[in-house]
Amino acid sequence: MSRIVMKTWAKIEARHQKELDGITIEDAVFGRYLCAVKLSNNQYGVSSIIEDDKVHCDKALRDYGPFTPLQIRGRSLPELFDYQKESATVNMLRIAVLNALSSLYISDESVKLMVDTDPIDLLDIKTGQRVILVGAFHSYIKHCLKAGANLGILEMNQDALSDNHRSLFIPADQFEVVIPDAEVLIITGLTLVNDTLEGLLKAVRPGTKVVVTGPSSSIIPHVLFDYGVDMVGGIRITKPEVLFSLVGQGAAGYHLFKYCAEKITMKKC
Q: Structure pTM?
């Protein structure tokens, strides 16, 4: 269970308990790359898809309980975050729900919110600077190489990189060796969903500029700031009526920006 996720939920719940009373998950859809939820207060959120590592063909592992197919609609938010049986579906729903709620509470006096802004555009990357990407952000790769960065890409799957970028590949399990050398560290929001973000952040040395970005990281940033993150990039859903159709038809993050969302960046004030 991600402590960052649970601390973020606890912060929202503590500040807005009366407003959250009675809100339920009205609907959810799981596509090829994204999960989307609609809450009963008409807020929408997304999460990246992760695979469940349990073998469901084993009869003893089959699950028909809460937060399984046909057992998601109508569930309360405390039920989701208090649920003790961990699964990929529960992780994805938690992130999508946090993103939906955060769209209401993401900006306060401690957060500078910039709309239609990508964190990469706010980084002054210099020639020779050691930059580590956690995740194969292809547009970020091009940006960093154009700036002359000494770039490395931590990835679980080398095939996520194009042929001309394969030389930059670093196996993900080498993060404890590589991250301490980074002057700039850019981490995919997917790490919030698969519960690897906290471990990555523990390997960061003081003085490193740290960015967490992607559709999954569209949460209130206060807990991430407490963990040493400098900027958080996410999305804001602008056309919710389009979201479920997009996700159900196999949309990736870049499809959202074309049809129903805008980029946001959050920094400390």
A: 0.95
